[in-house]
Design a protein that fits this description.
Elements: E1 4-7, E2 13-18, E3 21-27, H1 37-48, E4 57-61, H2 67-75, E5 80-84, H3 88-97, E6 106-109, H4 113-118, E7 125-130, H5 145-154, E8 155-167, H6 172-182, E9 187-192, H7 194-197, E10 203-210, H8 216-225, E11 231-233, H9 235-242
Parallel strand pairs: 4-5, 4-7, 5-6, 7-8
Antiparallel strand pairs: 1-2, 2-3, 8-10, 9-10, 9-11
Length: 260
């Protein structure tokens, strides 16, 4: 099914639909507005990193409608951003129908995540945001121990990995992802909707990882005050909830479970 851009009821706002899924929501008039709840949670982490409003070096694995790069360009002007998006036809469609602001600082490379990562310099990124899907599932090659080592390699000392996962209780797939990431970036936190953590429905789990610290306190404040409250688990709670897995490797991996 070809990608398509669909207008919403809000003037200036559109949805990018891919493989029958609403992949991205873009508000051309207000790029600081993040309509999807899980994307808002990613935005909260971006806001909590470092000095608010200061430029950041951001690598995005997965681009789609370029919602998050637009958000970073809006909230952290003069940021240097690179997007790894292998679907060149989708990027062309988005650039044509949902053009980026002038001098946005956003560069899109038509390569897959692993190939693009290999070309990124050591320690050159403040944030690595992984929000990639193929046929509605997170690709397995982006959640292995070897790939986690690549994320860690390109991150600066204080950098953070933001990894958007999709799963359902009892989170067997996520447990293996967490184990793989922790081998390279040992300090973790995770956010999700309460209903997902309680096993009532599948959903997005945002895993955040770093070498020394993750912004748990700041995110808990955001989680309690936002329009769509969510839960933030610290490292010990991550272990209790989605720990104990065997790390995925390049020789033994799988995409995220199909969501029903």
């Amino acid at each position: 099914m070809p990608a398509e851009i669909v207008p919403t009821e809000r003037a200036g706002a559109f949805v990018l639909r891919m493989d029958g899924h609403d992949q991205s929501h873009v508000d051309l008039d207000d790029p600081g507005r993040l309509a999807f709840d899980y994307v808002r949670r990613i935005g909260d982490v971006v806001d909590a990193w470092g000095t608010p409003g200061a430029p950041a070096r951001v690598l995005h694995v997965g681009g789609a409608g370029l919602t998050l790069p637009r958000y970073v360009a809006h909230t952290r002007p003069r940021s240097a951003q690179v997007v790894l998006e292998p679907a060149a036809d989708v990027t062309e469609l988005v650039r044509r129908e949902l053009p980026l602001p002038r001098q946005s600082g956003i560069k899109v490379r038509p390569v897959d995540g692993r190939s693009g990562l290999a070309a990124v310099r050591d320690g050159s990124q403040d944030l690595v945001v992984v929000d990639a899907f193929a046929d509605g599932r997170v690709p397995g090659d982006l959640v292995t121990a070897e790939c986690a080592a690549e994320y860690a390699r390109v991150l600066a000392a204080s950098g953070l990995l933001l990894l958007n996962l999709t799963d359902a209780a009892p989170f067997a797939w996520t447990r293996r992802v967490v184990a793989a990431v922790r081998a390279a970036l040992p300090v973790t936190m995770l956010s999700a909707e309460p209903a997902t953590l309680r096993g009532r429905r599948p959903g997005n789990l945002l895993l955040v990882a770093g070498r020394d610290t993750v912004p748990v306190a700041a995110l808990r404040t955001r989680a309690a005050s936002g329009p769509a409250p969510y839960r933030v688990l610290d490292g010990a709670q991550v272990s209790d909830t989605v720990g104990g897995g065997r790390p995925f490797t390049d020789a033994d991996t799988a995409p995220s479970p199909a969501q029903r």
